[in-house]
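User: My instructor asked us to take a sequence, write out its structure as tokens, and then describe one feature of it. I'm not sure where to start. Here is the sequence I was given:
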Amino acid sequence: MSFRIYLVEDDGNLNSILTSYLQKEGWQVTSFLNGEAAREAIKDAPHLWILDIMLPDIDGYQLIREIKTLSPDIPVIFISARDTDIDRVVGLELGSEDYLPKPFLPRELVIRAHKLLERVYIDIAKQREISTIALPPYTINPTSRIAKLKEEVLELTSKEFDLLLFFVKNQGQALSRDQILNYIWGEDYFGTDRVVDDLVRRLRKKMPELQIETMYGYGYRMVKP
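Assistant: Let's start with the prediction itself. The structure tokens for your sequence are:
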């Protein structure tokens, strides 16, 4: 995966060296020599920011505040010539994922960036892929609560998605209306169990390929494909 890295370092020589090392990894690197230029690029939302704390205009602390306000999930590595505990602590409090005191070997920054990018993007992507349930021709992701028909996202209400998950988790089993009612609406619900029939009808309409059988006088059963 070709990641976009934004580097903010006011030392021109070090900026050039770090940019070169990062580009050798196949990453798209944009570098800045001051905080104001970097601030204008926050809206670009790169995959990773590498920020020097001590800058001639806006310091790294102000930049990370603005970065995390706009894009809280984008990781940040702080670099600083001040190897003090307070810098580490403040950086963590403001949301940085890593801290590297100067002087450091450029290769160490590359290694840390690799590990951070892998953890934030690749591992999460793999986990999402693992958690996706295949129910041909549909795919269902319980974590993001998204159901798709191929690449088309289906517009399901919260209760429709809850019902879908309940059926998926109990494929092949007969589910009474009371079981469905308690699962979707809770045991404190007061009303007719016909709301279950209406919810099933809506789910069938939006996902007609689901094999949901009606068990007259009892409830429903989803048949395994």
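For the description part of your assignment, you could build on this observation: The longest helix spans residues 106-131. Try explaining in your own words what that tells you about the chain.
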